[in-house]
């Protein structure tokens, strides 16, 4: 994987690091996918996709979120604000604005091609995976607050938004009543909870009755024995690069304290007519793995219900990725990138 680079972005002046697959060889026009990682797993979870992107004619940029190694950590004031619900609006908005400025600066610095006249190439796709979704929806929800040049960059070039398995709390929803994870099990010694969580989350879970759309019937504890957890295919050095838990409690603080604002942003980003009008080229896809953790199904069903309630069912393309779990980008990078390209209208 290419080395980390970084850009200093407004309005916070934070350094945002990234890994860039670069211009596809011989490409006069190409689409760039900006990927935003989740919680407990870094940008390196996309490293296998970065390595195959050029061969598929795509530029893939894996962004390092704030408070992860390479990008600026939250300062004392930003960290303290996570516990203050009165500051939720501005705190979450700032994360979205940082991402918007990063993308606009990247587009300008590297002269990314615009959407072609026939719409078949060029432009950018915003890809959110897992908890990283809250940052991306904040970018879309607060686009009108951006400087003209940043807003115009996004609105003219954004061809797709791909939402890949967000947990319910990244959208402002509570977790299902039937929910379990090693990280919240008080019977497990503290020092083992995060490592156990990483192994458990990368497992595969069978949901034979998922077609009934009932969270009570989902398998929310026991992994399948048919497939080995994805983390077991990683080397020790890869695990050290991919897994990161030093900021885990701060991440949980965001989703537990800022739920009201996260839900407002989610609805504004996906279901608001003004947002749709601002992003006329934006195709929205929602991806969920067939054998993923139970809360991913709960999230998808909530979004489907909201799409119906807002009369926006035709606006979001929901896809089930057969045989996959929460880490399909690591297990099947070439196939996953092809799916991301399809969701981008390529």
UniProtKB/TrEMBL annotation:
Domain AB hydrolase-1 residues, every copy: 35-336
InterPro entries: AB_hydrolase_1 (IPR000073), AB_hydrolase_fold (IPR029058)
Pfam hit, one: Abhydrolase_6
Origin: domain of life: Eukaryota
Protein name, as recorded: AB hydrolase-1 domain-containing protein
Provenance organism: Rhodocollybia butyracea
Lineage: Eukaryota, Fungi, Dikarya, Basidiomycota, Agaricomycotina
